[in-house]
Specification:
It is a single chain. The protein has eleven helices and two strands. The protein is mainly α. Strands 1-2 form a two-stranded parallel sheet.
């Protein structure tokens, strides 16, 4: 009985030791698994530090950031073929995989037989140097292409454009002058047909539109000063040029009919012009001057006075003609 108890006791101790060992192994395996980084196939990254440090990570966690691919700048490429570059970039590509990188670098170095003793660095320098050299060459080529651009001289095009603009202006000015000459000839024909019944100086349309309006606007403004029509000399002069009538005709009638607009029987009707009325003086002036041109000719006549004011033709004619002489 004592022997059985002893054997049983020893068996229990061995079982406990085995269980403890298994626990340690499981714990170690768990720790190792927990520290293992797993990446999916679409998340494979390549460390460009050296050929020997080609690294693959597989991770389950979406929160772990993907490794950054570092491309050496052209300035880090050694002219000797990359011993310094390879030596520096090999371990720095991924500190977490230092052991694997060194092993791969050593194996690669042994295979290639580099004289420097760091063959993995030389291989890395050669690979990265080639890639960097290509990028650098592309940049130099692009800059060279930009520098080779010949400045474009647009002065000839601008001169051509300016010439076209000036030509268009010249043609438009010639057209305007031709129309003005035709208008002057037409008005002069009306003056000859009129016969000069007005005992006042002839109006000279041959000076041209601008000079004509400037002169008669000033003279009419002086005549209408202090009246409701004061300041509208330019409207009377411009309308007279447009419709080819004596510029003194309408202002003088305004005095005969309403005291220069002081006693209008309808709004803005200073000429006793039928039953017409207007909302402003410019519209009224242009309408009256056009009416004179269409119905009474170039200037005042006795026949025109009889038509305009049948009940008092003589007085109307003499008064209006006398006012025209004052303008």
């Amino acid at each position: 009985m004592a022997r059985r108890k002893s054997v049983k006791k020893k068996g229990n101790v061995v079982a406990k030791i085995v269980a403890a060992g298994l626990f340690v192994c499981v714990a170690a395996a768990g720790i190792g698994f927990a520290s293992t980084t797993i990446m999916s196939p679409d998340e494979v990254s390549v460390g460009l530090g050296s050929v020997g440090t080609f690294q693959t990570r597989i991770t389950v966690s979406e929160s772990v950031p993907r490794p950054v691919v570092v491309v050496p700048e052209p300035s880090t490429v050694a002219a000797s073929g990359g011993e310094e570059t390879g030596g520096a970039s090999g371990p720095a590509a991924d500190p977490a995989a230092d052991g694997t990188g060194n092993a791969d670098g050593a194996a690669s170095g042994s295979a290639d037989g580099a004289a420097s003793g760091s063959v993995s660095g030389a291989a890395s320098g050669g690979a990265s140097g080639s890639s960097s050299t290509d990028v650098f060459a592309q940049k130099v080529q692009s800059r060279s292409a930009l520098n080779d651009l010949t400045p474009c001289d647009i002065s000839a095009g601008l001169k051509t454009l300016n010439d076209r603009i000036e030509e268009a202006r010249r043609i438009e000015e010639e057209r305007r002058l031709a129309a003005e000459r035709a208008h002057i000839a037409q008005v002069q024909e009306r003056q000859r047909a009129y016969g000069g019944e007005s005992a006042v100086a002839e109006v000279d349309f041959s000076v041209g539109q601008e000079a004509f309006i400037e002169e008669w606007a000033r003279r009419i403004d002086n005549y209408l000063a202090g009246s409701p029509l004061a300041g509208y000399g330019n409207e009377f002069a411009a309308a007279a040029w447009e419709y080819g009538v004596d510029p003194r005709f309408s202002p003088a009638i305004s005095n005969t009919e309403s005291g220069k607009g002081s006693n209008c029987f309808l709004p803005h009707n200073a000429w006793g012009w039928g039953a017409s009325m207007w909302f402003n003086w410019p519209d009224a002036i242009w309408a009256h001057v056009k009416g004179l041109s269409d119905g009474y000719g170039y200037s005042i006549t006795y026949a025109g006075a009889a038509k305009y004011c049948p009940p008092n033709t003589d007085n109307w004619y003499n008064n209006t003609k006398g006012e025209m002489a004052r303008i």
